[in-house]
Description:
single chain; alpha/beta; UDP-N-acetylmuramoyl-L-alanine:D-glutamate ligase; Protein-Tyrosine Phosphatase, Chain A; 11-stranded mixed sheet; 6-stranded mixed sheet; 17 strands
Amino acid sequence: MERQADDYSAAIAFLxxxxxxxxxxxxxxxxxxxxxxxxxxxxxxxxxxxxNGKGSVSAFCESAIRAAGYKTGRYTSPHLVDYxxxxxxxxxxxxxxxxxxxxxxxxxxxENYNKMHSETLSQFEVSTAAALKFFLxxxxxxxxxxxxxxxxxxxxxxxxxxxxIITQVSLEHTRALGGTxxxxxxxxxxxxxxxxxxxxxxxxAGLGVIRKVAAEKKSEIITVAEKGSVAGTGFFFAExxxxxxxxxxxVSSKLGxxxxxxxxxxxxxxxNMAVAYAALCKLGEMGVLKVPQEAIAAGFQNAKWPGRLExxxxxxxxxxxxxxxxxxxxxxxASVSALFAGRNxxxxxxxxxxxxVESSVALLAPLATAFFxxxxxxxxxxxxxxxxxxxxxxxPAVLEFDSAAAAFWEAKKKAEAQAGGMVLVAGSLYLVGEVxxxxxxxxxxxxxxxxxxKG
Length: 455
C-alpha cells in the first residue's frame, strides 16, 4: 500500500511539473500516442464539446450506454478532489494504482520528447494520451470523451468519434479561442468529422457557424431546442418538473414524445437530458450502439455528476455548483431561486482570473444574504479583491478571505445561526473541489473521533 501511495504521488508530481501549453497544435499528443504504441482513432467514442453542460451530457450518455450492457469509458476534466476522477471504467474511477501505472509508464517518453521538441507536451496532453491507451487496454466497448477547451485543437480531438456533440456556445477562454461567439463556435465545430453527424443545442450565430462547418464536411446536424423557441426540425424539449426530488423533461422529435427523469437538480438538466437523448437516438439509428428506451430512462435517472447543484450537506444545507461563467451563473441563479426561495443564502465565491468575473458575480451576488469572496488554490485564480469588488455592487454584505476553507467555515457558521440559512459555494470547479475536500476531512475527523470513543 505504501508503494502504491508513493507511485501515485510521483505520478501527480510528474504531471504538475509539466510545462503549460505553448503552441496550439495536435502534433505533440499525436506523437505521444504513436510513441506509446497505439492509435487514438481506435477508441470507439463520442466527443462532447461546449461552453456549458458538456460534463452533465457526458454523464447522461455514459450512464445510459452502460445501462444498455456496454463496457464504458469516460474521460472528463477538471477533477474536483482527485485526479482519478478524470478517468472511469463502467462508472468507477480508475484506481490510484492504475493511474500511477499509466502516467509513470509514459514519463520517460514525455521527458525525452520535451527535451527534443519546442512544442512540448503539457499535463492535459499526457493525461489524455494515457487515458485513451487505458481505454484500449481495458477493452471498453465505447467511450464518452469530454473536450477540455475549444475542440479543433484540443488534445481529445485526436480521436475519431462516431458522433460529435456541441452543447452550447458562449464567450469563454477568449484569449485562446477568440473574442466572439462565431470564433469560439468555429473552434468547437472542429470536433465534427466528415460524413459523421453532430448534435447541438446551439442557437443564433453559433449555430450558423456550426451549420457552415458541417455543410463543408457533408455532416448532418441534429438540433436540440426548447419547445416553441425556434422553427425547424430536430429535438424539442419542455420542462415537466424541477424540484428537490429531481428533474423531469419531455422530449419530442420525429421518433415521438418521451418523458425522462434524473436525480440531478436544476432546470438546466432538462436541456442536458434532451441533448444526450438526441445523441443516443442518433447512435442507435446509425447502428453504432443499441441503447433501448428503458436503458436511457434508467441511465438518466441514475446518472451522477458531482459539483453541479450538488447537496453536499444538510445541516446546514450546503449546495455546490461550478458556475464559472455568465451562462452557468444565470442557470444557477434561476435554479436556486426556484428550488430554495426564501432561504438566507451565504455565498462563497471564487473564480479564475481569465473568466468574466464581473458578469458572473453580477448574476450570483443578488442571491446572497452575505457574500464571501475567496481566491482559489490555482495559479490562475482571480484575487479575492476582484471578486469582492464585483459583488459589492449587488450585495450589501461582502467579506474577503485568504482561503476557501476560511471563507467556507465562516459562511457555515453564519448559516447555522440564521433561520433558513444555507451555504452556496459557486464559481470555479476548483473551488468546489476545495470545499468538498474540507467537508471530507470534517467527516473523516468525526468518524475517527466516533471510533475512538467506541474503542
